[in-house]
Design goal:
The protein has one domain (22-338). The chain contains 14 helices and two strands; from the N terminus they run H-H-H-H-H-H-H-E-E-H-H-H-H-H-H-H. It has helices spanning 3-15, 17-32, 39-64, 72-85, 106-130, 134-153, 168-175, 188-206, 208-218, 220-225, 230-256, 267-277, 289-308, 313-338; strands spanning 177-181, 184-187. The protein is mostly helical.
Length: 339
């Protein structure tokens, strides 16, 4: 094999390193326990990773513009509590709204998504119009949203009791399956996550908003000069991200069958880590939907797979930390080489 072919192979693998790592991780766990490759196990990993993927896609929008969103996890908690509080069965002893009639299931879902969109819109306005750094702006909204959610959660007669007794027509979207026959089934939540990922891919690659997003992240001054309305695009991007967090919060409540004001705590860090591991540049301007999906699956395999083969949770944290640091170091190296 000549040197040119070796260079081409090396470059090809470097560009797809995240997928190579994912495959090697799955193979390594499967060697330790071949049962890991059972369809039911892989299905469970995808089911648990679905809401994380939606959150990570929302975070990717922000990271590609060169920003960061620390409010994602608290938005998930807020929308989980809002949707769950309106979708309890009549016979549940501790209903959040005792006199609320049984609503069409779509209404609380839409309300939850719109609540997330509203938070994202506020973030975008603060950042675009008042020029507050994204880190500070979203740190402030993160704290404020948790306070608002806690006040709502502590309302009479609930008084901070975990919200349970959710209706079957709601929980099926998080824990229900489509039976394919032959012992195989696909969770509804996985289908939803895949559809959301496809929509995000279209936005990233086939729309003006997507092109503007990459331009802003690549060089915001050049984007201004080229005629891009940076403020308007940032507001739209933060609003979309908020809506994605809202959808993830609703689905998380449906998946677990309940909600508390602490839902979503630290999810934003997992989302950012998955994005960075999946090739989204911390400097902005770079990132793909398949890469984000691979990053989410890597952490899903680590959390589920290493537990499956009996690896200590403490070792899992060490492994995750090493992967994050290595991914950021690799990203910085590429950025410096480009400079």
């Amino acid at each position: 094999m000549n040197s040119l072919a070796i260079v081409k192979i090396r470059d090809y693998l470097a560009q797809r390193a995240i997928f190579v790592v994912l495959i090697m991780l799955v193979i390594g766990i499967a060697v330790a326990d071949p049962n890991f490759l059972a369809f039911s196990t892989l299905r469970d990993i995808m089911q648990q990773s679905s809401t994380r993927l939606i959150i990570a896609l929302g975070a990717a929008f922000i990271l590609i513009t060169g920003g960061v969103d620390l409010s994602a996890g608290r938005v998930v908690g807020l929308t989980a509590v809002i949707s769950a509080s309106m979708l309890q069965i009549d016979t549940y002893a501790n209903r959040f709204f005792p006199d609320l009639p049984q609503l069409w299931v779509g209404i609380p879902i839409i309300v939850g998504i719109m609540a997330g969109l509203l938070v994202g819109l506020v973030n975008g306005l603060i950042i675009a119009k008042f020029h507050v750094p994204p880190f500070i702006a979203t740190l402030g909204t993160m704290v404020g949203i948790y306070g608002v959610n806690s006040l709502y959660f502590d309302m009479e007669p609930n008084q901070s009791q975990p919200i349970g007794g959710l209706r079957d027509d709601f929980t099926k979207w998080g824990s229900g399956f489509i039976d394919l026959g032959g012992g195989y089934s696909i969770p509804y939540i996985v289908i939803i996550a895949v559809v959301v990922a496809l929509i995000c891919w279209v936005i990233f690659n086939k729309t003006r908003l997507g092109k503007n997003m990459y331009a802003i992240g690549g060089n915001v001054q050049a984007a201004h000069v080229s005629g891009i309305n940076v403020a308007r695009n940032l507001i739209a991007i933060y609003a979309i991200s908020g809506a994605l967090y809202g959808l993830a919060g609703v689905l998380e409540a449906a998946r677990t069958g309940g909600a508390t004001n602490n839902y979503g705590n630290m999810y934003e860090l997992d989302a950012i880590a998955a994005c960075v591991v999946g090739g989204v540049s911390t400097a902005g301007g770079i990132g793909t939907v398949p890469g984000v999906a691979a990053g989410v699956l890597i952490f899903g395999v680590i959390n589920y797979g290493l537990t499956y083969i009996g690896v200590s949770p403490y070792w899992q944290l060490i492994i995750k930390g090493l992967i994050i640091v290595a991914a950021v170091a690799f990203d910085i190296r590429k950025y410096m080489a480009k400079k």
